[in-house]
Recover the amino acids of this structure.
């Protein structure tokens, strides 16, 4: 029995405070989570085999806690990429003097910084995993 997707989804959602996800119906949320997971599988380097079965929503192998954490972090990267590539930060805002706008470029800069920090944290976790699982030290 392999690791179910729900385990990775749960870890990912524990890291998130995106309340807009709670407004989605179960099917739409499931499709989005699976898309972010597939993106994470491509980006994550791990010593485990990450082959999966989408029909049963399960990985073919039992994944370690480190693997699950790496995949959840990869899902965060995919989620952040969607935010960074949004037209919300590239569209021109026009409004009157009563309206208050925050600088889209500052928000975009902060999102990029958050993505960079998440990527660095993910790389450090992977380095730790390779150190722990290295046969040379046994």
């Amino acid at each position: 029995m392999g690791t179910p997707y729900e385990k990775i989804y749960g870890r990912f959602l524990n890291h998130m405070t995106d309340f807009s996800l709670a407004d989605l119906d179960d099917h739409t949320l499931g499709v989005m989570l699976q898309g972010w997971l597939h993106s994470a599988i491509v980006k994550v380097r791990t010593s485990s085999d990450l082959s999966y079965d989408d029909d049963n929503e399960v990985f073919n192998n039992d994944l370690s806690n480190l693997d699950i954490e790496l995949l959840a972090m990869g899902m965060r990267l995919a989620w952040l990429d969607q935010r960074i590539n949004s037209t919300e930060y590239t569209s021109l805002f026009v409004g009157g003097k009563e309206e208050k706008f925050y600088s889209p470029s500052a928000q975009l800069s902060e999102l990029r910084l958050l993505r960079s920090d998440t990527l660095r944290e993910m790389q450090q976790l992977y380095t730790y995993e390779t150190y722990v699982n290295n046969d040379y030290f046994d």
Notes: The first helix runs from residue 5 to 15.
